Sequence to fold (150 residues):
Amino acid sequence: MPFKLNLGEKGKTYKVESNSEAFIGKKIGDKISGKEIASEIDDFEFEITGFSDNSGFPGIKGVEGVGLKKRLLKYGLGMRRRPRREGKKPRADPKPKGLRLRKTVHADYIGEDIVQINLKISKQGSKPLNEIYKKEETQEKKSEEKTAES
Fold:
């Protein structure tokens, strides 16, 4: 199963796809070496900061188990604004204090149904990521320029 990985580095994100089975069974906060992801980043070390499954439910740290769970959430990860059922009347405060809703979230273990994983660098490698993935960015820009000209 291919995972879409977002490698974060000081305000810049690199998108990589990996078919590695090393992520299955890991949880949020675990560290993973770069050689398990791709050969060009083998001297890096990454930390799992979050993920989402194929339906778009976010993985929440602290929710034990595997699969979907219903949790009572306040504003923050997994809950961002008023629910739709409250209508479109203008409100003075779009985030009222004390509002908590029961939302469906994914537990913090990575399973087969995970599609996208967010990683941050915990140990830098010999080459920075912008040099490793520079070639792919320039090829994408050239193809976009050619399509814009025609």
About this structure: The helical segments are 129-132, 134-149.
